[in-house]
Write a structure and sequence with these properties.
By secondary structure, the chain is α+β, with helices and mostly antiparallel strands. The chain has a single domain, classed as Alpha-Beta Plaits, CATH 3.30.70. It has two helices and four strands. The chain has a four-stranded antiparallel sheet, with helices on one face. The protein is globular and about 40 Å long. The chain starts with a strand and ends with a strand.
């Protein structure tokens, strides 16, 4: 079993709300594909990173989790690319962690 986590920015690069129009479609696609998800949407997390120019960038993000038996890497890579295009982002983090359900 694996836990796939998707980190989605709340705001676009222009500072405007990003997920208002897109979150429902993202959620519906994942539920249709995997039968469910958990979304942490109430208190956006803070993401910080430093680029080559040494300036620290900041994002507010929400996290969506999906439990899957096996990770279909090609499906997830294509999904990540669609998210990047839809959200106009250079990168969207999608990560898979091994897990044990108890």
């Amino acid at each position: 079993m694996h836990l796939v986590q998707i980190l989605l920015p709340v705001y676009g690069n222009d500072g405007k709300p990003l997920l208002q129009e897109t979150y429902g479609g993202i959620r519906d696609e994942l539920v249709a594909q995997f039968g469910g998800l958990t979304a942490f949407t109430e208190s956006p997390a803070e993401g910080l990173w430093t680029r080559d120019d040494q300036k620290t960038k900041r994002d507010e993000i929400i996290m969506i989790e999906v439990m899957v038996e096996d990770v279909d890497r090609s499906w997830w890579a294509a999904f990540r690319e669609r998210l990047q295009e839809r959200l106009k982002q250079e990168s969207v983090v999608v990560r898979a962690l091994p897990m044990e359900q108890i």
